């Protein structure tokens, strides 16, 4: 025997003799068996429903028996060597078998080893067993909406290509090249149907070309053109939201790395010629024949096998005896299981300090108390998840959820409903759950709430959690994501399938680092358990079930089915009636009285708000005492206030979210909206020095700016124009027009580029131009009228009626060169739009120059 093999054999023998008893002694005998009678034990065994403690005891006995058998055989071999006989279990075979069993057991949780080049061909039966052993893939159907196409354009802007990169990354990681990616183009309702359909197809092809460039060859990407037949039905977003493309694709949990590597290996290894294949088949059959003959000889007598091994060495070539293989594999499995347990990755516990990412502020976290092996915080608070991963289940009790948390009892579903509802109100939180959990909590079917991801089963929910983590990692470089880290709340039922349980355990292990809180509804999951059988009492049990602590005098955080439906916004009863009852209120806060038309002179009974929201400018501004307090707000907060100001009667929650954050994921968009509303409230209260001040009102699922809290320049502009149109007094009409002109100091939000703003911007341009032209016509002298006309041209540079009035006024002043300059300027601007001055304008120009 080779010296190295001897050393390996001895080392393996010693390891298998010493390590198992040391480790098995740490596995204590189940104490629950002491009070169990033999009759009860026998009934559980014959009914095939033995308790877990019985299985643990049987496993412990079996492992000790295997080790005892192995030890006895080794002692017999040692005695045989001392008497000069051949041992029944050769040290070489023992070493090889033990090492093989150990390596298989240890590497099982990691990666399957690659067979050597000269190994025998894998049979179809082995392939079938391998396929059955793999975890089935979970398929997710997704649709990505991409808006931002320009009018009559199919080109992707840099912003659109950047927004497509996360989708490309998801396809590269979890996509299946065998599943087709479908891109559907859409247009707005302007233009003929045939033209819109062709334009939508070009938009789909542009997106498909970008995806093909990023993904490479091997992917099937199909395109469709829907034209204008499928609008988004969101009138608040404007027609820009309909100029979009929708990407439908499939994600799967089946890893692509193994498939790709095997495909590459098959491509690198050319298939052998037919002669070589026949030669390999013949050698394989001869080898099998020799193996069968060898096994027959082994079954006759063990002494013959030992003698044969010593004389001819055939034993090493033909295989191992059944006893040797059984004992060696069993011992190797024991060592492998222990080694795998010892080398398995531990839970990474990272204590987060500072601000609570869900509570949105810096809180003084009290020291946790460890009772029965579970850390709890006994302090009043309103935050859902505090620093360190403590989940609040009652008004003055938060339980550590770093290793996951199970909720059971009569009110278990109500507690989960409360946690889901509070999480949806938190900033930057995604809630992932299943249809069964929502049904138990009392939510109706087909619940669709921003920020809530509903999956058909637990396995799909775990996959969504993993994808959310990948998306969160990619968004870490964004400014908003860094300022307020995102968290994911996973709420599922206790899994029954072993593979799903293992995957849930892996998600729980990295939950502290990945920002995931796992909440399990029901019993059976090995985690700390909170039992809620009363509204004022909570029982906390450790993961092993060995210790329970009762906390009473609490107020349990729970929701019944009706409250949960209202929280999710699915209970819309009475909403339509409330909307119908809302009467359109005319904004008269900015209107002057008939006697005093100036804005600065108001009636004694009216109180002008201290805050003023200015939208006629590059960016929204919130002014208080000539200071822009809006500079302290986030950009998304100012844009939200601007959008609500342009809709004085309010906007629905979904419409508001889609209009502001249409390019963000649904859960992230909801978090951004919540962040914006909280930020507006915080800044206004600090500026006014009033902790109860409000600027927004949310009723019946609609956001609205409080008229009594803020004055808006566009409201004053609109109100003045309405009053000018309603009055028949020329002086009063002129006064109202001057008020409107004083409000329009700049183009509406000239530096804000969002789909909903352009339509409003154009409308105010035209309204301002008409106002300035009316003021020009009402002035006594042409010089003053020309000033108003120049302002009209600045506000609407493509309005030919304005240029016509300018040319007439310049001609009346005898400035024919100015008439020609005005006509040339109009021609240049229209040329950039591939248009020409109208016949009326050209004819007027010729008449004024006397040509």
UniProtKB/TrEMBL annotation:
<dbReference type="GO" id="GO:0016020">
    <property type="term" value="C:membrane"/>
</dbReference>
<feature type="compositionally biased region" description="Basic and acidic residues">
    <location>
        <begin position="126"/>
        <end position="136"/>
    </location>
</feature>
<keyword id="KW-0812">Transmembrane</keyword>
<keyword id="KW-1133">Transmembrane helix</keyword>
<dbReference type="InterPro" id="IPR036737">
    <property type="entry name" value="OmpA-like_sf"/>
</dbReference>
<protein>
    <submittedName>
        <fullName>OmpA family protein</fullName>
    </submittedName>
</protein>
<dbReference type="InterPro" id="IPR036388">
    <property type="entry name" value="WH-like_DNA-bd_sf"/>
</dbReference>
<dbReference type="InterPro" id="IPR005158">
    <property type="entry name" value="BTAD"/>
</dbReference>
<feature type="region of interest" description="Disordered">
    <location>
        <begin position="254"/>
        <end position="321"/>
    </location>
</feature>
<feature type="compositionally biased region" description="Basic and acidic residues">
    <location>
        <begin position="277"/>
        <end position="300"/>
    </location>
</feature>
<dbReference type="InterPro" id="IPR006665">
    <property type="entry name" value="OmpA-like"/>
</dbReference>
<keyword id="KW-0472">Membrane</keyword>
<feature type="domain" description="OmpA-like">
    <location>
        <begin position="136"/>
        <end position="253"/>
    </location>
</feature>
<dbReference type="Pfam" id="PF00691">
    <property type="entry name" value="OmpA"/>
</dbReference>
<feature type="region of interest" description="Disordered">
    <location>
        <begin position="347"/>
        <end position="370"/>
    </location>
</feature>
<dbReference type="InterPro" id="IPR051677">
    <property type="entry name" value="AfsR-DnrI-RedD_regulator"/>
</dbReference>
<feature type="region of interest" description="Disordered">
    <location>
        <begin position="117"/>
        <end position="136"/>
    </location>
</feature>
<dbReference type="Pfam" id="PF03704">
    <property type="entry name" value="BTAD"/>
</dbReference>
<dbReference type="InterPro" id="IPR006664">
    <property type="entry name" value="OMP_bac"/>
</dbReference>
<dbReference type="InterPro" id="IPR011990">
    <property type="entry name" value="TPR-like_helical_dom_sf"/>
</dbReference>
<feature type="transmembrane region" description="Helical">
    <location>
        <begin position="91"/>
        <end position="112"/>
    </location>
</feature>
<feature type="transmembrane region" description="Helical">
    <location>
        <begin position="53"/>
        <end position="79"/>
    </location>
</feature>
């Amino acid at each position: 025997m080779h010296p190295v093999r001897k050393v390996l054999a001895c080392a393996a023998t010693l390891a298998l003799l010493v390590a198992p008893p040391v480790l098995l002694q740490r596995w204590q005998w189940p104490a629950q068996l002491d009070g169990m009678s033999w009759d009860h034990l026998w009934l559980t065994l014959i009914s095939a429903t033995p308790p877990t403690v019985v299985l643990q005891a049987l496993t412990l006995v079996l492992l000790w028996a295997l080790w005892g058998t192995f030890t006895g055989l080794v002692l017999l071999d040692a005695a045989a060597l001392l008497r000069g006989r051949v041992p029944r279990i050769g040290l070489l075979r023992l070493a090889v078998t033990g090492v093989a069993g150990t390596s298989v057991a240890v590497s099982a949780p990691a990666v399957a080893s690659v067979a050597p080049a000269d190994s025998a061909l894998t049979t179809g039966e082995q392939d079938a067993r391998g396929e059955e052993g793999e975890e089935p893939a979970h398929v997710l159907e997704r649709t990505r909406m991409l808006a931002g196409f320009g009018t009559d354009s199919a080109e992707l802007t840099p912003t659109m290509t950047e927004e497509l990169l996360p989708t490309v990354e998801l396809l590269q990681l979890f996509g299946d090249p065998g599943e087709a990616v479908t891109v559907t183009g859409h247009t707005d309702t302007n233009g003929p149907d045939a033209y819109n359909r062709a334009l939508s197809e070009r938009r789909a092809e542009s997106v498909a070309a970008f995806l093909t460039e990023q993904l490479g060859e091997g992917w099937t990407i199909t395109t469709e053109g829907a034209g204008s037949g499928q609008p988004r039905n969101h009138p608040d977003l404007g027609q820009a939201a309909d100029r979009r493309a929708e990407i439908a694709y499939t994600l799967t949990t089946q890893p692509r790395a193994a498939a790709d590597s095997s495909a590459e290996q098959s491509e690198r290894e050319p298939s052998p010629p037919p002669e070589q294949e026949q030669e390999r088949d013949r050698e394989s059959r001869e080898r099998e024949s020799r193996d069968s003959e060898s096994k027959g000889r082994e079954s006759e007598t063990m002494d013959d096998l030992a003698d044969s091994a010593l004389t001819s060495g055939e034993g090493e070539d033909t295989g191992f005896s059944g006893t040797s293989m059984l004992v060696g594999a069993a011992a190797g499995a024991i060592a492998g299981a222990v080694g795998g347990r010892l080398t398995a990755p531990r839970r990474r516990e990272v204590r987060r300090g500072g601000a609570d990412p869900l509570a949105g502020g810096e809180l003084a976290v009290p020291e946790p108390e460890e009772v029965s092996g579970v850390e709890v915080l006994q302090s009043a608070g309103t935050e859902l998840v505090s620093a360190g991963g403590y989940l609040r289940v009652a008004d003055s009790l938060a339980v550590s959820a770093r290793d996951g948390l199970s909720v059971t009892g009569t009110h278990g579903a109500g507690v989960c409903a409360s946690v889901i509802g509070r999480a949806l109100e938190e900033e930057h939180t995604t809630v992932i759950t299943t249809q069964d959990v929502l049904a138990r909590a009392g939510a109706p079917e087909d619940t669709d709430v921003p920020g809530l991801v509903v999956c058909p089963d637990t396995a799909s929910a775990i996959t969504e959690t993993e994808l959310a983590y990948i998306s969160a990692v990619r968004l870490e470089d964004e400014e908003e994501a860094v300022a307020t880290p995102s968290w994911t709340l996973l709420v599922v039922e206790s899994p029954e399938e072993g593979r799903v349980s293992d995957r849930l355990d892996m998600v729980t292990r990295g939950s502290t680092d990945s920002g995931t809180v796992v909440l399990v509804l029901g019993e059976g999951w090995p985690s700390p358990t909170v039992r809620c059988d009363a509204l004022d009492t909570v029982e906390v049990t450790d993961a092993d079930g060995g210790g329970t602590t009762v906390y009473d005098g609490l107020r349990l955080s729970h929701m019944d089915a009706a409250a949960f439906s209202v929280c999710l916004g699915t209970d819309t009863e009475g909403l339509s009636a409330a909307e119908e009852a809302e009467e359109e209120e005319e904004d008269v806060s900015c209107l002057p009285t008939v006697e005093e038309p100036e804005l600065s002179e108001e009636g004694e009974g009216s109180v002008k708000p201290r805050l003023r929201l200015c939208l006629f400018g590059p960016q929204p501004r919130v002014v208080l005492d000539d200071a822009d307090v809006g500079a302290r707000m986030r950009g998304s907060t100012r844009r939200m206030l601007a959008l609500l100001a342009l809709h004085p009667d309010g906007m629905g929650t979904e419409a508001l979210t889609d209009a502001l954050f249409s390019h963000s994921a649904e859960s992230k968009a909801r978090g951004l909206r919540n962040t914006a509303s909280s930020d507006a409230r915080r800044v206004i209260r600090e500026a006014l020095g009033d902790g109860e001040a409000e600027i927004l009102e949310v009723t019946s699922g609609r956001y609205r700016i409080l008229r009594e809290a803020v004055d808006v320049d566009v409201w004053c502009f609109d109100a003045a124009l309405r009053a000018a149109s309603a009055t028949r007094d020329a002086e009063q009409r002129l006064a109202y027009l001057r008020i409107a002109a004083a409000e329009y100091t700049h183009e509406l939000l000239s530096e804000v580029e969002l789909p909903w703003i352009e339509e409003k911007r154009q409308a105010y341009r035209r309204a301002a131009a008409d106002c300035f032209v009316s003021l020009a016509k009402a002035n006594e002298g042409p010089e003053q009228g020309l000033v108003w006309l120049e302002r009209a041209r600045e506000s609407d540079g493509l309005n030919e009626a304005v240029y016509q009035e300018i040319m007439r006024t310049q001609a009346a002043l005898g400035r024919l060169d100015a008439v020609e300059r005005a006509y040339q300027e109009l021609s240049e601007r229209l040329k950039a739009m591939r248009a020409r001055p109208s016949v009326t304008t050209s004819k007027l120009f010729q008449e004024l120059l006397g040509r």
